[in-house]
Inverse folding.
């Protein structure tokens, strides 16, 4: 996009090449502003086609995986919050509207209105990223991560035991487990009477008896768990995980009196094999889109600066137009991502 | 035009204000927005990378002199062939013609003052430089031994592949964007900066091929970008997208990779074909035969290139149906290629063929590309490909196409436009000798590899069984590569010498009619002070040799195209 | 059908004798020795394409050279006539259509041959093949025999390889059979052939797989049916029937070739530590691991390993558990691939290595081995016989 401002300094260098009728924004190799504008627009459309192909690879991966394993996507989608996703869609659509307004105002030469609209668009971009941050941090917190991380650190949440340390400080951690295990038993027996019974809706939401407490825990479930882990974790680590899994049940049940509204995937006997694939493709696609939103934010900021220093006029607002095109494509991609992940 | 009219000197002089002398100082080069300077910087950089890749090639060939390996261990050999492949493909061949010669020639041929987006053009160049730096970084962060294809799961397995994989992937990712931006720039330039009179079918065929190339660059490279980005994340964080242990699919990677890398083969060969169209027509002094067939065949090749990637995966285990379909489409590429060959031959018919270095490269191309294309039949045919896949037969085939055709056409193009770029003539006899060395060396090196491959020698082998009869072929091949290296060194020497003591180049040393031969040599900073008038760029009958100029000038008995009396030249452009 | 079509096309083109397929299937200028039922078709097709290629290459080269000489620019020529044609649509259509028809024919033949290469007969003799860096392992389920580095296949019977990879991509290629198939981790792939000539043929890995890719070779021995049955029967019981005394030699001859790409016998460090002196280092507990531990701290009563033999057994079955310093832990596990008695044989081989091979790692023909079943402080022979069938590893005879 550096071509957008391919004018000022450049034309300055070669002022002697041109007559007086050559405006400052016009590059020396252009005949007139219209030619330059049309070329800029064509270049932008070509760039946008490469953007679509960039995402195209991921959309193909999504399609292939979803066709092969629809159950993974059905299962994974329940961990996404349609509320935040929907809100983000609204934010992005609104910002797209203000962007379009900015372009229209620019064409009419109303630069104050352009500035206001661009600032509103920037707020939209920032708002989108804030909501993305909320969603991401929630997922990371719960260990709903792509690839192998899905199995390595599901326990970062305060609800879960820090399993990832098990591999490192073996003896200390083993002692810690033993200690906590006895403590948990003590707490359990002590609190059994004190705690109110789990709220009824928690049980309704729950996918399996496992999450309601240690009673629901079965050996068969453990086998599913660890046989899958064996595929890519060393035997020693698997053994530690096996040891600690019952612990997860206790700590989850009792910490802060909180009940998770869904079974954590790692404990869910109904979890499809390779459930982490959903989070892999989710993070890759929304992450790449997020990067584009950040780039868009930078572009908009830069457009605001140029508008404020009076670079644009009714006769020349190509960068705003091109920036708008870019912002719309970012919007359109999200329009596809939202239903693919949150709704279907 | 003006330069042609004013040709009344004893010796043509360097125009006082040309693009080389327009401004001076290092910064005036590093920050230049002039497409000619950027093209020249690309040329120097690409040739530097070519030297590096060539060194690795010689190491690889020397290693294979003896069955147990001659100079390296297994690891070093694996690194050597990986770097040879990666440097040659990503740093040399892909940017070679479009980014260096294309950058220099395209706007002038078109009659424009510059490319559409000069800053983007400079940015592309620096992306290339950053990519090259990342490749160097890969060497210092543990090396690279994945092969240039980066096949998973080997490349993502941190236990087996080396530490330089991520820097190298980053390098290719960045180089991909350099290529995309160049393609975008050329497409926009050709669409929006054609001066009046330069209709699509008046464009020189080199521009057609660059246009087809740019379409591929813009449409295929983003897929490589996202694939490599995924591979980087896969290797760094184990997201499992290509890892079977996590439910991923290594064959998906191959599909993604070849979806780019097969069209990339045409990014390499199409501009080379464009150069050959120019070389053969100009140096045969004969109107190109079947202009439209050649132009459309470039577009056809670009379209087909997106549909044949699966032929790299005939043995990968993709379904038989898919394999058969890919084989069928693959054969369709043979047809436009054959059309071009026959058209070039017909162009020479009744021509006036100068046996100078560019034409020798052009004729060498016809021979080498014929072999490269015909052996493509063996590989596109399913039953025989099963036997030949991943053997030296494939190695020989793609060297015939990528090196013997694409790179040698590039070298031929350098000779063709050398007088224009530098304002100096190189030593013609040295050029002919060097061409002989390169041509003979090349064929000795790679013809033998066809036999090696069909006899069963697998590629990427640091050692080979002593009793399989491979050694004699390897020895011949290695000596051939030394001969070829000598040819390249000789070329480098006389080209560099010509900068200091070469004869001043006339405006039109070969008798070309496309617009770049109407600018002075070297061209002025702005290419054209006035919009040039465009005629049929392959009608050479209006030119004649001038002893005074030591170059070609407009025939005195033919009205000048700029004048009122000019009739639009007919053939080929209707 | 397919040979019919081939001969049809070949006769149309002037009846080309199958030049590169002599009746004895020996090597020709282009093709290596041919020894499978599929090979003649592939070779015919290769010759057919070659013929077309020669015709076109000669045609183009002759025209090229003729034009270059005939129309060479004359000295002193100053201007050019434009009397050559600029285009000729019928001619151009001709040289568009002729190649098109030719490639359609070639494509069709290639497809027919390919489908034949992919479709394995239902009565094939099946061998499970495991590819891993950098060796081939062949399992004969019918006989319960595992071979590595070499495989016996019956003559004149379709053989199917059912192939899987333990790590990265590999590819199985036997030039003499004209067959090749990638081996992809996470899925099975098949390859079939019918050997038509007894003999020994080279098998290559043709998909780049890392450091010792070029050493990932194996031999295919084609044996007539009776010899094949005999050989398999012998292999099936070989290590069970062998006296203890012959176990080290057995390990060196039959098992070591799978270790050879990483563990040398002459003391040179390759991917893994050399076997030379390995037992001495182990016995003294000198080995140091990547985490800095010394082996002597791990061996002994009540420690992780009761005896040095236990440590070596663990290294074979769970190599990632302890990785020797300065090495990368590239070794795959051989759990389930080696019978317990074979593990014992390997351990014995390491113990008596200096009597089995000389300083350069070359085998000594008649090694002077001690009488092992007398007991020499290592594993008792009765134990070994039991372990050969069991999976549970009992502690050593020390207890």
């Amino acid at each position: 996009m550096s071509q957008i401002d391919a004018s000022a300094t450049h034309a300055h260098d070669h002022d002697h090449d041109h007559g007086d009728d050559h405006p400052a924004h016009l590059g020396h190799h252009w005949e007139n502003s219209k030619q330059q504008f049309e070329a800029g627009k064509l270049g932008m459309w070509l760039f946008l086609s490469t953007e679509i192909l960039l995402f195209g690879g991921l959309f193909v991966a999504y399609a292939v995986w979803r066709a092969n394993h629809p159950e993974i996507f059905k299962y994974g989608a329940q961990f996404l919050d349609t509320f935040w996703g929907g809100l983000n869609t609204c934010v992005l659509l609104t910002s797209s509207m203000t962007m379009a307004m900015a372009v229209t105002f620019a064409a009419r030469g109303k630069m104050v209105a352009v500035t206001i609209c661009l600032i509103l668009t920037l707020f939209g971009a920032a708002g989108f990223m804030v909501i993305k941050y909320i969603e991401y941090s929630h997922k990371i917190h719960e260990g709903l991560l792509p690839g192998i991380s899905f199995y390595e650190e599901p326990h970062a949440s305060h609800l879960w035991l820090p399993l990832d340390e098990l591999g490192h400080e073996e003896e200390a951690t083993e002692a810690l487990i033993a200690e906590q295990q006895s403590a948990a038993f003590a707490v359990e027996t002590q609190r059994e009477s004190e705690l109110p019974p789990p709220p009824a809706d928690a049980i309704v939401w729950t996918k399996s008896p496992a999450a309601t407490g240690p009673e629901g825990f079965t050996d068969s479930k453990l086998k599913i768990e660890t046989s899958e882990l064996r595929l890519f974790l060393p035997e020693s680590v698997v053994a530690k995980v096996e040891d600690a899994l019952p612990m997860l049940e206790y700590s989850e049940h009792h910490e802060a009196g909180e009940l998770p509204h869904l079974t954590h995937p790692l404990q869910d006997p109904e979890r499809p094999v390779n459930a982490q694939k959903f989070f892999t493709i989710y993070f890759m696609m929304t992450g790449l889109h997020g990067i584009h939103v950040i780039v868009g934010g930078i572009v908009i900021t830069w457009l605001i600066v140029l508008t404020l220093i009076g670079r644009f006029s009714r006769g020349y607002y190509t960068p705003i137009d091109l920036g708008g095109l870019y912002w719309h494509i970012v919007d359109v991609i999200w329009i596809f991502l939202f239903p693919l992940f949150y709704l279907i | 035009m003006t330069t042609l009219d004013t040709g009344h000197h004893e010796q043509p002089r360097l125009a006082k204000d040309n693009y080389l002398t327009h401004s001076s100082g290092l910064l005036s080069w590093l920050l230049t927005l002039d497409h000619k300077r950027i093209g020249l910087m690309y040329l120097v950089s690409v040739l530097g990378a070519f030297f590096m890749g060539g060194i690795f090639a010689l190491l690889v060939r020397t290693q294979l002199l003896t069955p147990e390996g001659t100079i390296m261990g297994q690891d070093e050999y694996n690194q050597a062939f990986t770097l040879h492949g990666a440097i040659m493909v990503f740093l040399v061949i892909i940017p070679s013609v479009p980014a260096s010669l294309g950058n220099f020639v395209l706007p002038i041929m078109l009659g424009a003052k510059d490319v559409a987006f000069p800053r983007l053009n400079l940015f592309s160049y620096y992306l290339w430089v950053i990519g090259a730096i990342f490749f160097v970084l890969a060497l210092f962060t543990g090396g690279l031994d994945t092969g240039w294809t980066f096949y998973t799961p080997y490349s993502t397995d941190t236990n087996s592949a080396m530490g330089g994989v991520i820097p190298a992937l980053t390098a290719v990712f960045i180089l991909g964007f350099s290529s995309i931006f160049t393609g975008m720039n050329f497409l926009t330039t050709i669409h929006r900066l054609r001066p009046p009179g330069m209709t699509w079918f008046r464009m020189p065929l080199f521009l057609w091929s660059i246009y087809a190339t740019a379409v591929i660059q813009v449409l295929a490279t983003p897929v490589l970008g996202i694939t490599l980005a995924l591979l980087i994340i896969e290797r760094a964080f184990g997201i499992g997208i290509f890892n079977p242990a996590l439910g991923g699919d290594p064959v998906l990677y191959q599909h993604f990779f070849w979806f780019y890398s097969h069209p990339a083969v045409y990014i390499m060969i199409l501009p080379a074909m464009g150069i050959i169209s120019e070389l053969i027509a100009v140096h045969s002094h004969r109107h190109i035969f079947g202009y439209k067939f050649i132009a459309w065949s470039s577009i056809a090749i670009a379209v087909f290139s997106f549909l044949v990637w699966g032929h790299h995966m005939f043995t990968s285990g993709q379904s038989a149906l898919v394999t058969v379909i890919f084989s069928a489409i693959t054969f369709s590429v043979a047809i436009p290629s054959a059309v071009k060959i026959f058209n070039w031959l017909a162009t020479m018919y009744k021509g006036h063929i100068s046996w100078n270095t560019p034409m020798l490269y052009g004729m060498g191309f016809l021979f080498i590309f014929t072999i490269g294309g015909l052996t493509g039949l063996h590989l596109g045919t399913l039953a025989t490909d099963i036997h030949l896949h991943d053997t030296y037969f494939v190695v020989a085939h793609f060297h015939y196409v990528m090196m013997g055709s694409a790179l040698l056409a590039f070298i031929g193009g350098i000779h063709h436009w050398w007088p224009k770029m530098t304002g100096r003539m190189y030593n013609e006899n040295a050029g002919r000798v060097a061409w002989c060395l390169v041509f003979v060396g090349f064929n000795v090196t790679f013809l033998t590899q066809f036999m090696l491959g069909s006899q069963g020698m697998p590629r990427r082998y640091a050692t080979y069984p002593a009793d399989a009869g491979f050694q004699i072929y390897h020895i011949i091949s290695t000596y051939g590569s030394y001969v070829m290296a000598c040819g390249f060194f000789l070329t480098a020497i006389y080209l560099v010498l010509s900068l200091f003591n070469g004869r001043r180049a006339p405006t039109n040393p070969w008798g070309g009619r496309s617009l770049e031969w109407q600018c002075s040599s070297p061209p002025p900073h702005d290419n054209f002070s006035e919009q040039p008038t465009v005629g049929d760029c392959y009608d050479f009958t209006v030119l004649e040799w001038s002893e005074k100029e030591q170059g070609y000038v407009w025939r005195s008995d033919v009205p000048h195209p700029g004048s009122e009396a000019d009739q639009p030249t007919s053939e080929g452009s209707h | 059908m397919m040979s019919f079509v081939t001969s049809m096309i070949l006769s149309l083109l002037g009846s080309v004798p199958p030049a590169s397929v002599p009746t004895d299937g020996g090597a020709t200028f282009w093709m290596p020795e041919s020894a499978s039922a599929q090979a003649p078709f592939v070779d015919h097709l290769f010759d057919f394409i070659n013929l077309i290629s020669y015709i076109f290459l000669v045609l183009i080269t002759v025209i090229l050279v003729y034009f270059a000489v005939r129309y060479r620019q004359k000295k002193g020529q100053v201007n050019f006539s434009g009397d050559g044609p600029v285009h000729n649509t019928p001619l151009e259509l001709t040289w568009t259509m002729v190649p098109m028809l030719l490639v359609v024919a070639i494509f069709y033949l290639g497809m027919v041959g390919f489908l034949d290469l992919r479709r394995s007969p239902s009565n094939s003799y099946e061998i499970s093949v495991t590819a891993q860096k950098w060796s081939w392992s062949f399992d004969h389920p019918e006989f319960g025999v595992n071979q590595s580095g070499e495989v016996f296949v019956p003559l004149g019977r379709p053989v199917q390889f059912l192939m899987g990879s333990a790590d990265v991509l590999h590819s199985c290629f036997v030039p003499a059979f004209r067959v090749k198939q990638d081996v992809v981790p996470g899925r099975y792939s098949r390859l079939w052939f019918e050997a038509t000539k007894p003999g020994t043929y080279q098998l290559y890995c043709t998909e780049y797989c890392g450091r010792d890719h070029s050493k990932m070779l194996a031999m295919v021995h084609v044996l007539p049916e009776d010899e094949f049955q005999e050989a398999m029967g012998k292999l099936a019981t070989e290590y069970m029937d062998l006296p203890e005394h012959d176990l080290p030699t057995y390990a060196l001859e039959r098992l070591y070739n799978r270790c050879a790409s990483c563990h040398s016998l002459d003391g040179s460090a390759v991917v893994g530590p050399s076997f030379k002196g390995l037992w001495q280092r182990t016995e003294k507990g000198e080995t140091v691991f990547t985490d800095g531990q010394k082996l002597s701290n791990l061996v002994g009563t009540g420690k992780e390993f009761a005896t040095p033999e236990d440590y070596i057994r663990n290294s074979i079955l769970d190599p990632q558990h302890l990785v020797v310093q300065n090495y990368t832990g590239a070794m795959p596990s051989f759990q389930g691939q080696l019978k317990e008695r074979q593990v014992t044989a390997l351990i014995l081989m390491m113990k008596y290595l200096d009597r089995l091979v000389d300083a350069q790692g070359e085998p000594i023909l008649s090694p002077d081995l001690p009488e092992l079943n007398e007991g020499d402080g290592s594993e008792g022979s009765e134990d070994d016989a039991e372990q050969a069938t069991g999976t549970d590893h009992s502690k050593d005879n020390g207890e």
User: Anything to note?
Assistant: Residues 39-70 of chain C form the longest helix (32 residues). Chain C touches chain B through 92 residues (CB under 8 Å).
